[in-house]
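Module 6 notes. Inverse folding takes a fixed backbone as the condition and produces residue identities as the prediction. Think of it as a translation problem where the source language is geometry and the target language is the twenty amino acids. Below is one complete input and output pair. Work through it position by position during the lab.
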C-alpha cells in the first residue's frame, strides 16, 4: 500500500512537472510568435482600396516580426468564401483576415450565413477609415446637397442614384439619406465603379457616392462634381466640400473601415501581440503617406475597441435595412 501510494505520488509530481513544462512551452510559443509564415486571407478580388491597404500592412508586418505575412485572395459569394475559410482555420495566429466594414452589412442583407461575426471571429484591430464622396454629373443644376434634396423631393424617383451593388455600403448610404430626408431616388446598381463612373461621365447617371480613390480623377478632370463627404469629417483631399451632416442630415456618417481578424479562440496573447504590432504599422510615416494620398485615414484600435465598433455597426445596418426595406435585386 505504501509502495503504491509512493508510486501515485511520484506520478502526481511527474504530471505536475509536465503541466508546468507544457505551460512554459505555451508561453514560449506566444513570445516567439510568429515562428513561421502567416497567411492573410483577403475575401475579395485583387485591386481597389482594400488591396492597397493590405499590401502596405503585410509588407510592414513582415519587416517588424521577421516572418512573411502572405496575402491570399479568396473572393466570391460576397466575401462568404474567404470569411468561412478563416472561421474554420486553426486558431493559432497563422491564418488571419483583412476585411472591410462590409462584413457588418452582410448579416443584415443575407439570410443563413455560415458564420456569426461576433461569435466566430476575433477582432484584432481596425487599421483605417475611408470616406466616400457624393458626386453629381457635371450638368446637374444642384451645387450642394440641399439643392439636390430639394430637387429630389420635388421630383420623387427621377434622380438616378448609382451604386456598386445592391445591399452594399453605397446603396445603404443612399437609403439612409432617403430615410432621414423624406426623399426618393431610383437606385441603379452596377457591377463595379468603372461602369458607374462611365455612365456618370456620359450624363446617364445623376448622382452616386464612391470612394476617393476612384472619384478624384473625375473630380480633377471636371467630369463629375463633388457635393458632399459621406463621413462626418471633411477630407483633406477636398477640404472645401462639406459633409452630409454639415448640410443638414443630423447624425449622418458613413465610413468604410478596414480591419484585421483572426479565428475565434485564437489565444488572446497572440491577438494582443498582433494588435500592438499593427498599431506600430499605422503610425509609420510611409504608411500614413501612402494611405492619405488615397483619401484613407489610418486608425488603430485595441481588440476590445474594435469589437465595440463591430457590434455598433451590426446593429446600425440591421436597423436601417429593417426600416428602409432594402432588398438585394
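Target side of the pair, the amino acids:
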Amino acid at each position: 500500500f505504501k509502495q503504491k501510494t509512493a508510486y501515485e505520488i511520484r506520478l502526481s509530481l511527474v504530471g505536475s512537472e509536465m503541466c508546468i513544462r507544457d505551460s512554459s512551452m505555451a508561453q514560449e510559443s506566444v513570445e516567439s510568435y510568429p515562428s513561421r509564415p502567416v497567411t492573410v486571407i483577403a475575401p475579395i478580388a485583387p485591386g481597389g482600396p482594400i488591396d492597397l491597404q493590405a499590401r502596405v500592412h503585410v509588407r510592414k508586418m513582415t519587416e517588424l516580426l521577421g516572418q512573411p505575412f502572405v496575402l491570399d485572395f479568396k473572393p466570391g459569394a460576397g466575401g462568404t468564401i474567404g470569411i468561412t475559410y478563416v472561421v474554420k482555420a486553426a486558431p493559432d495566429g497563422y491564418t488571419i483576415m483583412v476585411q472591410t466594414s462590409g462584413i457588418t452589412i452582410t448579416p443584415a442583407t443575407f439570410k443563413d450565413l455560415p458564420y456569426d461575426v461576433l461569435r466566430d471571429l476575433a477582432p484584432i484591430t481596425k487599421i483605417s477609415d475611408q470616406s466616400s464622396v457624393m458626386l453629381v454629373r457635371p450638368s446637374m443644376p444642384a451645387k450642394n446637397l440641399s439643392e439636390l434634396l430639394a430637387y429630389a423631393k420635388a421630383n420623387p424617383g427621377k434622380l438616378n442614384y448609382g451604386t456598386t451593388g445592391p445591399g452594399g455600403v453605397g446603396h445603404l448610404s443612399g437609403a439612409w439619406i432617403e430615410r432621414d430626408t423624406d426623399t426618393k431616388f431610383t437606385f441603379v446598381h452596377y457591377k463595379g465603379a468603372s461602369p458607374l463612373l462611365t455612365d456618370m461621365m456620359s450624363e446617364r447617371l445623376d448622382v452616386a457616392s464612391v470612394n476617393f480613390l476612384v472619384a478624384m480623377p473625375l473630380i480633377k478632370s471636371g467630369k463629375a462634381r463633388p457635393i458632399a463627404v459621406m463621413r462626418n469629417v471633411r477630407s483633406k483631399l477636398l477640404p472645401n466640400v462639406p459633409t452630409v451632416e454639415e448640410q443638414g442630415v443630423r447624425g449622418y456618417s458613413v465610413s468604410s473601415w478596414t480591419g484585421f481578424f483572426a479565428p475565434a479562440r485564437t489565444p488572446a496573447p497572440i491577438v494582443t501581440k498582433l494588435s500592438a504590432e499593427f498599431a506600430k504599422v499605422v503610425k509609420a510615416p510611409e504608411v500614413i503617406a501612402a494611405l492619405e494620398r488615397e483619401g484613407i485615414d489610418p486608425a488603430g484600435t485595441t481588440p476590445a475597441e474594435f469589437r465595440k465598433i463591430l457590434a455598433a455597426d451590426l446593429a446600425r445596418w440591421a436597423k436601417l435595412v429593417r426600416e428602409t426595406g432594402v432588398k438585394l435585386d
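Reference fact for the lab report: The longest strand covers residues 121-130.
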